[in-house]
Specification:
Blueprint: H1 4-13, E1 15-18, H2 24-39, E2 46-47, E3 57-61, H3 68-76, H4 79-86, E4 92-102, E5 110-113, E6 121-122, E7 126-132, E8 142-145, E9 185-186, E10 195-199, E11 204-206, E12 213-221, E13 226-227, E14 258-259
Antiparallel strand pairs: 1-10, 2-3, 3-4, 4-12, 4-14, 5-11, 6-13, 7-10, 7-12, 8-9, 8-11
Helix pairs in contact: 2-3
The structure holds 2-oxoglutaric acid.
2-oxoglutaric acid is lined by residues 98, 100, 110, 115, 128, 130, 204, 206, 215, 217.
């Protein structure tokens, strides 16, 4: 499904934008799922907005077992296949899904961060697919620092106040000077159904949003993904997993199913 150029761009930059991957059928399902999820939050849902401010930035994750709409998209849509292709893996596991919604007039920014330090997973064939359900203009869209997936892992940061977790052995993320780094910043105008594929170590950030911006992210584990422990809380927490997997073992667990993909 992906071209060689797209796979090469992912490998060099740690991010690639692919147009028009999910058609209306999948977008409709995700819209329905997010509507249900908004009024029926899971235990990990957060709201990052100021209570007195306009807008709302909320998220939720690990709900695919509760919402058939998410499950159908994760198990049946082209997302798993492109995740397998871009990581050049022989199989792909679902790690979890993550919904991130900026309601109209949301000022809250998504701070610069990368995802792998939040996760109980190590390896290199690790990718997220991020799909907007609404048009996202480039000036408020996700921004990526190309090539940063080859750099060190930094301490995770809290979305609510952008402070870093205490994470022994993980340096604090230096300030990203977006003017100085302008040649390395990647971002795109996005239409509903377009997909960003980004490595779990690629640094990224996003703007606030005047219009409603619903996004459905899915996290995927390729061939070399193994269980890891972190020196602080992970997100998602997956409580009890430390008793079921050993550090360095493949993520072979019913929470992380292998998804049947289209043959290449
Ligand atoms: O949707 C956003 O604003 C941030 C998304 C993000 O950080 C992620 O999907 O890893």
């Amino acid at each position: 499904m992906l071209t060689e150029n797209e796979i090469a761009q992912f490998s060099i930059d740690g991010v690639v934008h692919v147009s028009n991957v999910l058609d209306k059928k999948w977008i409709n399902l995700l819209e329905k799922g997010i509507d249900r999820n908004k009024s029926d939050r899971g235990p990990w849902s957060c709201d990052y907005s100021q209570p007195e401010g306009p807008g709302e930035f909320w998220d939720d994750y690990c709900n695919w077992q509760r919402f058939e709409e998410y499950k159908e998209v994760l198990f049946e849509s082209p997302l798993a296949t492109i995740a397998r292709e871009v990581t050049q893996s022989s199989q792909i596991r679902l790690f979890h899904e993550h919904v991130l919604v900026k309601e109209e007039q949301t000022n809250e920014l998504t701070p610069w961060h990368h995802d792998q330090p939040y996760y109980c997973v190590d390896g290199d064939k690790l990718v997220s697919t991020w799909v907007p359900l609404d048009y996202v203009p480039r000036h408020t869209a996700m921004r990526f620092l190309a090539g940063s997936h080859n750099g060190p892992m930094y301490a995770p940061r809290r979305f609510e106040d952008h402070t870093a977790y205490e994470y022994e052995g993980f340096p604090q993320l230096p300030k990203i000077d977006e003017v100085k780094e302008s040649l390395r910043i990647r971002s795109w105008d996005m239409q509903p159904g377009d997909v960003l594929l980004f490595h779990m170590r690629t640094l990224h950030a996003a703007g606030g949003s005047r219009a409603r911006r619903r996004a459905f992210a899915a996290r995927w584990l390729g061939d070399d993904a193994v269980y890891a422990q972190r020196p602080g809380p992970t997100s998602p927490p997956f409580p009890g997993l430390e008793n079921e997997l050993r550090v360095g073992e493949p993520m072979d667990h019913p929470l992380f199913p292998i998804i049947k993909c289209e043959e290449s």
